[in-house]
Backbone:
């Protein structure tokens, strides 16, 4: 089933949704609760917000593979295959007949904090931040549409700082600034989860329109409406939309902000001036807490699944790939089957250079469960010889928010933890019939 908006997804979650009635504070408390319950893998709806009668917040929307599978309307087993197939297809957006996102319009808002429950997440964050704002714009040079998630720091009144470290938006701003013009943008908050995933698909600087990928992922075209104050189309069924301009040539301190790396990151960043806030009746404000399971799921799809698809086409025997939770896409594990050592080595070189964020990759045989850290550590401890099986590459572009890199340039490493050719490993196993019987008995005990 395709969800056309955030609220229809939430309505459908039943037992996968935790409802919080106690009105928590948007400063720290909402983020703290989301971090606290992330291991449940359930989404959370805050039915009240402290000091903000009538407002609601939803978070942990992709806190597990189960939720991601539900977002795409498939079983967990088919998640990666479905994601890979659909993200290669294009379903162009259509013009909306109606735009619930523009039901209430505030032009030239004096104070955005008075209108929206802006959230503060971590102790030393400099201010409230928008963490899952889908930023939309058109390339002033070509007219091509582009979007991405970019953190935005509330600077009071109608101003935000925005971290533009990635294409296409960083390139669009450079093109606007080349002619001294502002870049018109819209920020969609609270979209259906498939669109959120599509917004961070790695497409490269000249990639396709991610709205077309969103249409394919959700199985129905995205409905777009014209912006009220900017020449940018906005998702008509978003909960909230901010419209505005990135000011040309302006850079100001932005941060500190607790990042997806698990560390604070400060930058000198462009500044946005908001020209309108529009929203639905009884809007639901979205939360995404950095360095939580929500981010892990997003990155393992938009990033991990992409890389898996590429590598499978280049090296025979690649069976599975996952991004290591909590690593902000810097760590990955790949499972292979019947892949000789020289091919594993080629795989390591390819993985580390195809994805510029990837810093460490471990390759294991497919008898190892790559989503179980204990099994991966076991493979490394027992099938890997550091001197023989390590690849180190240096002087490559990494990621600017990696606290250990110098301005984003650094080194990368690969571990070949597959059995060496001719090695005779005899893994201990419980007989299958006994294991099956034990599962039956254990299930009966726990019910
Ligand atoms: C949770 C999350 C937060 C992100 N925050 C930012 C950000 O603050 N600034 C930024 O430039 N990119 C950010 N990104 C990355 C971009 O939204 C997007 O992934 C990128 O444009 C993809 O293009 P690429 O091919 O260059 O990686 C974030 C991604 C995710 C998943």
Residues:
């Amino acid at each position: 089933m395709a969800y056309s908006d955030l609220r229809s997804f939430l309505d459908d979650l039943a037992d996968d949704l935790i409802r919080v009635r106690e009105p928590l504070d948007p400063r720290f408390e909402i983020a703290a609760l989301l971090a606290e319950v992330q291991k449940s893998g359930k989404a959370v709806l805050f039915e009240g917000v402290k000091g903000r009668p009538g407002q609601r917040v939803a978070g942990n929307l992709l806190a597990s593979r189960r939720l991601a599978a539900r977002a795409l309307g498939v079983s967990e087993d088919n998640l990666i295959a479905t994601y890979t197939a659909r993200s290669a297809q294009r379903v162009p957006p259509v013009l909306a007949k109606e735009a619930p996102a523009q039901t209430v319009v505030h032009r030239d808002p004096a104070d955005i904090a008075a209108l929206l429950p802006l959230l503060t997440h971590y102790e030393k964050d400099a201010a409230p931040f928008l963490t899952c704002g889908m930023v939309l714009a058109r390339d002033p040079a070509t007219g091509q549409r582009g979007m991405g998630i970019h953190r935005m720091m509330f600077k009071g009144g109608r101003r935000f700082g925005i971290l533009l470290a990635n294409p296409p938006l960083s390139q669009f701003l450079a093109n606007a600034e080349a002619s001294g013009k502002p870049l018109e943008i819209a920020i969609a908050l609270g979209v259906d989860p498939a669109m959120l995933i599509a917004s961070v698909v790695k497409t490269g600087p000249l990639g396709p329109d991610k709205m077309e990928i969103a249409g394919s992922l959700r199985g129905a075209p995205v409905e777009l409406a014209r912006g009220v104050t900017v020449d940018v189309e906005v998702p008509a069924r978003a909960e909230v939309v901010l419209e505005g301009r990135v000011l040309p040539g302006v850079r100001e301190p932005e941060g500190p902000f607790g990042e997806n790396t698990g560390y604070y990151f400060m930058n000198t960043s462009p500044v946005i001036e908001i020209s309108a806030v529009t929203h639905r009746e009884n809007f639901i404000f979205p939360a995404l807490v950095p360095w939580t399971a929500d981010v892990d799921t997003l990155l393992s799809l938009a990033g991990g699944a992409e890389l898996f698809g590429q590598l499978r086409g280049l090296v025979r025997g690649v069976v599975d790939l996952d991004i290591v939770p909590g690593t902000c896409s810097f760590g990955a594990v790949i499972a292979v089957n019947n892949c000789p050592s020289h091919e594993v080595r080629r795989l390591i070189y390819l993985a580390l250079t195809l994805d510029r964020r990837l810093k460490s990759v471990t390759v294991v045989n497919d008898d190892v469960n790559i989503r179980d850290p204990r099994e991966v550590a076991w493979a490394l401890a027992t099938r890997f010889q550091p001197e023989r099986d390590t690849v180190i590459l240096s002087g490559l572009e990494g990621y600017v928010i990696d606290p250990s890199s110098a301005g984003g340039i650094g080194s990368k490493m690969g571990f070949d933890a597959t059995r060496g050719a001719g090695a005779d490993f005899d893994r201990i196993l419980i007989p299958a019939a006994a294991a099956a019987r034990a599962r039956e008995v254990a299930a009966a005990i726990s019910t």
About this structure: The chain has a mean pLDDT of 95. The radius of gyration is 23 Å. The pocket of flavin mononucleotide is lined by residues 148-151, 163-167, 200, 202-204, 260, 295, 298-299 (CB under 6 Å).
